[in-house]
Amino acid sequence: EEPIFLRKKITLLRAFSLLIGSMVGSGIFISPKGVLQNSGSVGFSLVVWFACGLLSMFGALCYAELGTRITKSGGHYIYILETLGPLPSFLFLWAEFFAIRPANSAVVSLAFGRYMLEPFFAPCAAPVPAVKLVSLLGYYMVLTLNSWSVTWSARLQTALSIIKLLALALIIVPGMMLLAQGHTEHFQDAFDRQSLVWDKLPLAFYAGMFAYSGWFQTSFVREELVRPERNIPLAVIVSVITVIVGYMLTNVSYYTVLGREDVLASPAVAVSFVQRAFKSLISVVPVLVSLSCFGTMNGGIFTFSRTLFVASREGQWPPLFSMIHIRRHTPLPAVMLMFPLVTAMVCIGDIYHLMNFFSFSRWLFIGLATLGLIVHRHRHPELRSPFKVPLFVPVSFTIICLFTVAMSFYSDPMNISIGCTVVLSGFPVYYLIIHRQMTNRCCNLFYYLTYKLQLLLEVVQQEIKTY
């Protein structure tokens, strides 16, 4: 009785919550160890954290301009498609589905499970099978919620964003109090050059950028944003500045209380911090951290389902995934598609190996998307974007991304080679299935299966376009 399409339900507050909720998650609670391990010293690790924040701001500003120039949802995928063409956009989609997104979701899910169980097993480490079981339960809960309601997913994200900021405050305040009292012994000889290994720095940046990742999330839901021309730049700038300040103070607090060796030895840095600084909150902070991870999982599922939705609409993914549930108005098939791959990666994966594995592909394509902004400006000088950044911002961001990707082959050749292989494996798929037309028999079988699944899931094609 009414048109079936994705409603504009994301206001400025919800956009801000989506960004904060996606950035402040597992990263700040697990990445400090990875950044310190690969940067070598306390001082250089803080420099890496600030540089990652500045780089994230550059990238976020580029994506804010792309979001005002290109009015479709889909994030990286649609920006690469509209600026660089169908082949690189399909390679991104291929890598995103088989490597980037499931590995990222698995990392966040494992962090959720680890922190959720930490209070019950302290001072011992939680058993790995139990961590993986709880991780999967948390992921399935978020999957169910996103299949059920867009409104409730957005409301949950807003509530969890407040919890995330509270968790950061509980770490920052005691650390700043101790620092004000003169506890600076862990910052002595902070810039020890002997411990700096240059070829490991890209991995330090990957760990830091993982913690900041999420500044691009509004670009995935552009068609569902209220007043996107105004709200995208505003939400991006305020949220990234908030997170940079919060992350720098959080890391200073970690080092004030724990020191270099304790951070490197800790499997869960935030829990070790609370054990040392606030024993009375030993059971509270891990729960807050796990809820932060829960919010990041929610934001990730919410946005990636829109990438599959748009890719299907553009003809580069099966048409079933551009369909919407007739009553819930959610992209149900796109939401459910990640279920098997994330399950497999949680069962077999390790947090730090997974992080390096998906970071290569992610930053390669983000660099290509901002390169696309430069190309789009050159091709369409007549377009007057309501938000425009200086040219040196996309140029410098693109160069840094691609340079870091190239350097990472020296830092972790095994995981990076696997990520590269996943990307390259998309070439034959593109030319056999997308570029060439399927035979009539294959088409008939394909559409028959789509029809049966459509009936089973109660989904239909979007009736009107909102862009």
Automatic annotation (TrEMBL):
<feature type="transmembrane region" description="Helical">
    <location>
        <begin position="277"/>
        <end position="297"/>
    </location>
</feature>
<feature type="transmembrane region" description="Helical">
    <location>
        <begin position="233"/>
        <end position="257"/>
    </location>
</feature>
<feature type="transmembrane region" description="Helical">
    <location>
        <begin position="360"/>
        <end position="377"/>
    </location>
</feature>
<keyword id="KW-1133">Transmembrane helix</keyword>
<keyword id="KW-0812">Transmembrane</keyword>
<feature type="transmembrane region" description="Helical">
    <location>
        <begin position="76"/>
        <end position="100"/>
    </location>
</feature>
<feature type="transmembrane region" description="Helical">
    <location>
        <begin position="12"/>
        <end position="30"/>
    </location>
</feature>
<feature type="transmembrane region" description="Helical">
    <location>
        <begin position="42"/>
        <end position="64"/>
    </location>
</feature>
<dbReference type="InterPro" id="IPR002293">
    <property type="entry name" value="AA/rel_permease1"/>
</dbReference>
<feature type="transmembrane region" description="Helical">
    <location>
        <begin position="203"/>
        <end position="221"/>
    </location>
</feature>
<feature type="transmembrane region" description="Helical">
    <location>
        <begin position="120"/>
        <end position="142"/>
    </location>
</feature>
<dbReference type="Pfam" id="PF13520">
    <property type="entry name" value="AA_permease_2"/>
</dbReference>
<keyword id="KW-0472">Membrane</keyword>
<dbReference type="InterPro" id="IPR050598">
    <property type="entry name" value="AminoAcid_Transporter"/>
</dbReference>
<feature type="transmembrane region" description="Helical">
    <location>
        <begin position="332"/>
        <end position="354"/>
    </location>
</feature>
<protein>
    <submittedName>
        <fullName>Cystine/glutamate transporter</fullName>
    </submittedName>
</protein>
<dbReference type="GO" id="GO:0016020">
    <property type="term" value="C:membrane"/>
</dbReference>
<feature type="transmembrane region" description="Helical">
    <location>
        <begin position="416"/>
        <end position="434"/>
    </location>
</feature>
<feature type="transmembrane region" description="Helical">
    <location>
        <begin position="389"/>
        <end position="410"/>
    </location>
</feature>
<feature type="transmembrane region" description="Helical">
    <location>
        <begin position="162"/>
        <end position="183"/>
    </location>
</feature>
<dbReference type="GO" id="GO:0015179">
    <property type="term" value="F:L-amino acid transmembrane transporter activity"/>
</dbReference>
